[in-house]
Specification:
Elements (H helix, E strand, L loop, with lengths): L18 H7 L5 H16 L8 E8 L2 E9 L6 E9 L3 H16 L8
Antiparallel strand pairs: 1-2, 2-3
């Protein structure tokens, strides 16, 4: 079972124009987590998902590659579609978008609707 997208990641918000706070937060940034989250968040965004949409995704680093696994479920749990993408770590967001488009094409427009 895959977790919700970005499950367990800790995020800290700051104003985009606050360079002092950005500099203070920089040592806390974990690059590998950021790379994984870029893929997961692109997947969720392309699906137009929210906290109420049954979407799961998990990106893992395997050497110099990123493996993104994702799935979508009907709200009543009657059907699940899943897939994965593997590629260069720097292509995480592109892989997330691509995986989402693949699942959307399989799901059809009414997939997230209650029957």
């Amino acid at each position: 079972m895959l977790p919700a997208v970005a499950q367990g990641a800790i995020g800290i918000e700051r104003r985009s124009n606050d360079s002092v706070t950005a500099a203070l937060l920089e040592p806390l940034h974990h690059a590998a987590t950021g790379q994984r989250l870029a893929a997961e968040r692109a997947f969720l965004a392309a699906l137009d998902g929210s906290c109420e949409t049954p979407i799961a995704g998990l990106a893992t680093l395997e050497g110099s590659e990123l493996l993104l696994r994702g799935e979508v479920l009907r709200p009543d749990g009657s059907e699940k579609l899943s897939g994965e993408r593997r590629g260069a770590i720097g292509r995480g967001a592109e892989m997330g978008y691509d995986l989402a488009q693949d699942l959307l094409s399989q799901a059809g427009p009414e997939f997230f609707s209650w029957r």
